[in-house]
Amino acid sequence: MPHADPSDPRDPHRTPDTPGTSGANPLAGVRVLDLSQTLPGPFCTQVLADLGADVLKVEPPTGDMTRHSPTGIFHTANRNKRSLVIDLKQPEGLATCLRLAEGCDVFVEGFRPGVVDRLGVGYEAVARLRPGVVYCSISGYGQQGPLAKAPGHDLNYLAASGALAFSGSWRRLGPQRPGLPVADLSASLYAAVSIVAALRRRDLTGQGAHLDIALADCATAWAAVRGGLNQGLRDEDRMHLFPTNDLFRCADGRRIALGVVEEHFWRGLCKAASADEPRLNDPRFATEPGRREHGDELSALLGELFLRDTAESWVRRLGAHDVPVQRVLPLGEAMATPQAVSRGLVQTHQGQRHMTHPVVWDGRPATHVRHNPPALGADAPTWLA
User: Fold this and answer.
1) Pick from 304, 308, 176, 305: which is nearest to 241 by CA?
2) Could you tell me how far CA 229 lies from the centroid of its own chain?
3) pLDDT tens-place string over residues 296-318
4) Fewer CB atoms < 10 Å away: N or C end of the chain?
5) Which residues lie closer than 8 Å to 124 by C-beta, 6 or more apart?
6) In this predicted structure, which of 227-231, 250-254, 274-278 has the lowest mean pLDDT?
7) In whole angstroms, how far apart are CA 372 and each of 29, 154, 320?
8) Domains and CATH numbers, the chain
9) Cβ contacts of 75 within 8 Å, gap of 6 or more
10) Could you say which of 50, 64, 105, 184 is catalytic?
11) Cα pseudo-dihedral 83, 88, 91, 94, rounded to 10
């Protein structure tokens, strides 16, 4: 069971209930000691923090390296946490960390395999002090195997996972790098779900767990969903693509995302645009197999068509015929659309804007921002009192 009593206002580790949401901090009272840096571990523990867990972020004297990143990644992965500076290479730092581990329910680390054991905070050391702890190790290739200690970043794990074998566009075949850190974020979410499951098992049996999360494994799991039974797909294969499900540039230089896959959407596209482009009624395009067979020509035809008007105009015209179409938006614009605003998931706290836990719970946002990402070492007095 969690150590903290979330109902006791005298407990300095309590997490207050979230006002105005039905979720009411379902992980309130769960204490998480987070030794991870960069993105996979911190985003995982932010998910837990958003859901009410009390997360203490342990950082080296120089801080999480993302504090110094120009991309703002620290801000997006560390809200609702506390921060404590500990130098694990010093005896007093190790002693402090182990003392904190005695009171935690979850311990998260993101070092290469073997490092935490050398530092003295590996699973066996922590489990001796805190029986029943849920200890989560997040690494590139996992705790065993020939690549276990190999270095890497998101792109390396995607390459190793098979995820880059799938072309993203009918007109651009071959491996393409995604703009999002897919391996990092998929591992974060698998880790968070596994931690919650392990806590549930501990509630039932008292048994803790050592979770081994590999970024490459998580990316492979997602790639397998895309690959299905099409074993041995080559770069030039297009089984997962449609010439009518792609990005197209418009007259104003902006792009639209066209999502025509099902037959009724094709018919809607023809109704909306065949007056401008009679070649859409060519019998060769009348069936989905025909559109695939003549996909290069159809893709080029659509490319010419959409260059005749603006993105906004095409969205209105195609949308009037129930065709799936959206303008490709930059993040800032996407977070300010009427749709995004209506969901209530973009929140501002003390001058900082956040995209919160993206779940609506009983008709209201599941979580809110309790506090912004912490300053380095800001919470030492609270946790060491």
Assistant:
1) 176
2) 26
3) 999 999 999 999 999 999 999 99
4) C
5) 117
6) 227-231
7) 20, 26, 42
8) 31-225+347-383 (3.40.50.10540), 255-327 (no CATH)
9) 352, 372, 373
10) 184
11) 60
CA dist 99 and 112 (Å) reads 23
Structure tokens, 311 = 């993105």
- What span, in angstroms and rounded, lies between the C-alpha atoms of 13 and 5? 8
Residue 164 Cα distances to 125, 234, 352, angstroms: 38, 11, 35
Tokens encoding 26: 């379902």
Looking at the predicted structure, is the pLDDT value of residue 188 above 60? Answer: yes
Catalytic residue status for 184: yes
Predicted confidence (pLDDT) per residue in 239-251, tens digit = 788 999 999 999 9
Query: What angle is formed at CA 90 by the lines to CA 84 and CA 94, rounded to 5 degrees?
Result: 60
Residues in the chain: 385
> How many other C-beta atoms lie within 10 A of the C-beta of residue 143?
16
Please give the sequence-ordered ranges of beta strands (E in DSSP) within 31-155, or none if there are none: 31-34, 54-59, 81-85, 106-109, 134-139
The string of DSSP codes covering 271-297 is HHHTTT-GGGG-GGGSSHHHHHHTHHH
Give the angle 24-13-360 at the CA atoms, nearest 5°.
Answer: 20
Taking the model in full, what pTM does it have? 0.87
Residue 233 — pLDDT band, cuts 50, 70, 90?
Answer: low
Token pair, residue 278, equals: 């009679």
Please indicate whether residue 116 or residue 366 has the higher confidence score (pLDDT).
116
Distances (CA, A) of 179 to 182, 213, 304: 8, 23, 26
Range with lowest mean pLDDT among 89-103, 215-229, 274-288? 215-229
Structure tokens given for 143? 């705790």
Distance CA 253, CA 172 (A): 19
